[in-house]
Design a protein that fits this description.
10 helices; 16 strands; elongated; 436 residues
Length: 436
């Protein structure tokens, strides 16, 4: 019975010790108000090495902060995954950012096109046309001032005479000689057709009549007679009223042009010609000045502005890419799929689990016994597994407590030779005599 009670007491003691270790891991070693100094610090006696409990931590955890806000569309890692520096951890919805890049690219293309047009100036064909318009306008003005030449007057008279002759011919109809000639042609064609028909009839009984010369001759004679008769009928038919009206209008216009030419240019005609010269010259000047220096400078600035806009749009999308700042292990992932996050949000923590540290609070009465660079022994709680470590830092400012103050002391474990030690493990640390 006593043996059973003893076993129960041992089990309860071990449970209490584990619970105390967990509390130390979560909250650090608290001070015990009113307790002796050697009990508060875990020190067995003032002559023995200092000893403390604590939990291992990643030496330099790096917060992963989202530079841009948005909705999480993909989680590419999980807690505990190993990652490399620059590896993408999650993805945000970049639809609006992609649209912004496309708009910026279009704006840059338009600015470049506009600058190219300014740089090229007007096309050679446009310049040539504008110069030709100026020359034509000047020539017309000079001709108006000089008056018509003899050849121009002769050409105008000939054109007028021909137009009136055409009208009179339509109105009067063909002459008798013309009719007699057309009738003679038609009679000649009729005779040829009759002879061809007779020759064809003589061999019409043959099965191959369609392939004979007589058949071909009859076809030609028929076509010739039809054409000659049509010409005769057209010539002897009375003129259509529409044809007479068209011929009369053409004759009148030719007559007006001739009269205007003979009368010479009026002051209004010369003024109009001068206005046309000025208008053509102004159009040419505008084309030649299209690529002025100020316009080119403004165009170059617009291109640079568009380039900056595109760079900013691309940078905005690049900021939406969330990557690991260092190689290590994802120790914490603070977002979920579909979650909306804001710029500056901490989305994950990445740390190098090969670089571990331990922070213990040393009372002010013992802090003089600790020095930076001193060697310490770290023991994994509940085992005899140990590793030699080094005091890396002693906080210059202590934290006041009940009747005393404590100073955080940072102990760095070696990156090699610390196998079996991981973040979160409960350990004890004892300071060597050399550190006292």
């Amino acid at each position: 019975m006593l043996r059973t009670i003893s076993r129960i007491i041992v089990v309860l003691s071990l449970a209490a010790l584990v619970a105390a270790g967990v509390a130390l891991y979560r909250n650090g070693l608290p001070e015990l108000a009113g307790a002796p100094a050697d009990i508060q610090t875990g020190q067995a006696s003032t002559t023995e090495p200092l000893a403390f409990f604590g939990a291992l931590q990643v030496a330099e955890p790096r917060q992963v902060v989202a530079a841009a806000g948005g909705q999480v569309t993909s989680l590419l890692v999980e807690e505990g995954d190993s990652v490399t520096a620059g590896q993408e951890l999650l993805r945000l919805d970049t639809t609006n950012l992609d649209t912004g890049i496309e708009k910026a690219e279009i704006g840059l293309d338009l600015a470049k096109i506009a600058l190219a047009q300014l740089g090229e100036g007007s096309k050679e064909s446009e310049l040539a046309t504008a110069k030709a318009n100026v020359d034509v306008a000047k020539i017309n003005l000079e001709k108006l001032k000089e008056g018509p030449t003899k050849s121009e007057i002769t050409a105008a008279q000939n054109s007028t005479n021909a137009a009136w002759a055409r009208y009179n011919e339509l109105k009067a109809g063909p002459s008798q000689a013309r009719i007699d000639q057309l009738r003679a042609n038609m009679d000649k064609a009729q005779i040829a057709l009759t002879e061809a028909q007779r020759n064809y009839d003589e061999i019409a009984w043959r099965p191959d009549i369609g392939k004979t010369p007589q058949s071909a001759a009859l076809q030609r004679a028929t076509i010739d007679f039809t054409a000659v008769k049509a010409a005769f009928d057209e010539a002897t038919a009375p003129a259509k009223q529409s044809d007479l009206l068209t011929a009369l209008t053409a004759a009148q216009r030719a007559q007006i042009s001739q009269d205007d030419l003979l009368e010479g240019a009026t002051d209004a005609d010369i003024a109009l010609a001068e206005a046309r010269v000025l208008s053509a010259q102004a159009a040419l000047d505008r084309l030649e000045e299209l690529a002025g220096a100020s316009d080119l400078a403004a165009g170059e600035l617009r291109v640079r502005q568009a380039e900056i806009g595109l760079e900013e749009a691309k940078a905005a999308k690049a900021r939406a890419k969330v990557t690991a700042p260092i190689a290590g292990v994802v120790t914490s992932l603070n977002v979920s799929l579909g979650q909306m996050i804001g710029a500056g949000s901490s989305v994950a923590v990445v740390g190098d689990v090969a670089a571990l540290k331990l922070v213990v609070n040393v009372p002010q009465d013992d802090i003089d016994r600790v020095s930076v660079g001193a060697s310490v022994t770290v023991t994994r709680y509940g085992t005899d597994k140990t590793v030699d470590a080094t005091v890396k830092r002693i906080a210059p400012v202590g934290t006041p407590g009940a009747g005393t103050a404590t100073f955080p002391v940072t102990i760095m474990l070696p990156t090699e030779g610390a196998d079996g030690f991981s973040p979160g493990m409960l350990v004890s640390v004892s300071f060597d005599e050399a550190s006292e």
